[in-house]
Amino acid sequence: MKPKYIVCFLLMPALAGVLRAESEEEYYAVFLEGAKVGHAIHSRAVTGNRVTTSEMVNITMSRMGVEISVTMTETSVETARGEPLGFAVEQDLGMMVMKSVGTVNQDGTVTVRRKSMGGEQTRSFIWPRGAVMAEGLRLLVLRKGLKEGTSYTAKVFSPGIMQAVDSEIVIGAKEDIDLLGRIVNLTKVEIVMSMPGMGQVVTTSYVDDEFNALKSITPMAGMVLELVSCPKEFAMAGNDMFDIVDKMFVASPEPLGNVGSAKSIAYNLKLVVGAQDLIIPASDNQRVKKLDDGSVIVVVEPVFETRIGRYPYRGRDKELLEALEATRFLQSDDKKVVELARGAVRGAKDAGEAARKIERFVADYIDEVSLSVGYASASEVVQSRRGDCSEFAVLTAAMCRAVGIPSRVVMGVAYVDDWGGYQGFGGHAWTEAYVGDRWIGLDAAFKSGGRGGYDAGHIALAIGNGEPGDFFNLAATLGQFRITKVMVNRGQ
Fold this sequence. Notes:
Layout: H1 15-18, E1 26-32, E2 35-47, E3 50-63, E4 66-79, E5 84-92, E6 97-104, E7 109-116, E8 119-126, H2 134-144, E9 151-158, E10 163-179, E11 182-194, E12 200-207, E13 213-220, E14 223-229, H3 232-235, E15 249-250, E16 264-271, E17 286-290, E18 296-300, H4 318-322, H5 335-344, H6 351-365, E19 368-369, H7 378-384, E20 386-387, H8 389-402, E21 407-419, E22 422-435, E23 438-442, H9 444-448, E24 458-464, H10 472-477, E25 481-489
Parallel strand pairs: 19-20
Antiparallel strand pairs: 1-2, 1-14, 2-3, 3-4, 4-5, 5-6, 6-7, 7-8, 9-10, 10-11, 11-12, 12-13, 13-14, 15-22, 16-18, 16-25, 17-18, 21-22, 21-24, 22-23
């Protein structure tokens, strides 16, 4: 089990730095739940008509005593008018370094070249109409000013997730803010980031009269992430030891026993105090009913009839065709991924049997379950054979796609009786494959650990292609609810 909310840090438009007009570096200390866990560096340089803005964030935490350090750097290149020219992303996620360089072409297309231990890949997409990056957002904020009550919207492109996030910016009143013991009167700026069907993430920044953001606060996955402007010496100083595993667990109102024997389980999810809304995805394995008080009833009933369906998929359904495409984390066109997938499904008579063969193969293939891996792509997992739940999930999905079975990565929580002393629902990732006419659940990580695989003990909170942006709903939802009641149906 692995908390992936770290990746969601890239969703923020980095107002901690984007408002600054200086070209020199600015330093920030990063705090999580009050503990210093890292530092951030912002820089902005102007050369002729080109403005280059860079944001680097380093976070170090512990997971059950295993220390992991994650470093993410985003660089945007724009004209002096804020028009996008290109971007670069470097992610050091614990075991490997991934580098992506994007060029915004004159015809509105974007060409992205990505390098990692899995090799080099080239992808393209259409630039989101009206989207801005760091300089474009800075110019917009400067034009709108800091008058209390001012509000406006922006579509902010994040190089880290290669998506545009709809954002609403609201200017608040001035407040006295504590900056590591120094009290400064600053203007409150609230940014509400939304992605369709995935809830909201709210960042509150405090800026001075020169538009310098000196403090930013973001509730995320039930925790509070803070960036505070400070001298370089403090930002780069040592960090506190912060173990995040317990923050990623949701208590169960009662022990559930062998959830693998349950035909279905109904869960009552109730909003915690201060939470606004729960957006829980429905699927063939999960029914969702929202109640008038904002709470949600989730009924998980796994699809077990799997020995059906032809593959490769030959239909025209847009969603299913997209679930066959190679992505930067699901490299189903990687030669080694294709080779392993074809070998794994040899002898399979239908899509259901092929999907189960891939699940079993991945369960055995990853031979070092490691909490030290930040987040790896499928081609990187093929090379390293290391990781935990998300590495099992992305490799399973990529191999399914490689043989023509539509697949997707699911993020959520899963029940465990005892995982390092924890009991309840922990952050988890698994896979869904389209078999016959329905999506079935595959959990190679649980199968590897001796549990049967996907079962009614899984509650999905987000579904996607394993991209960092897919964790948006996980970050927005986890920590916003508690499970008040469970009803286990073990059938006949």
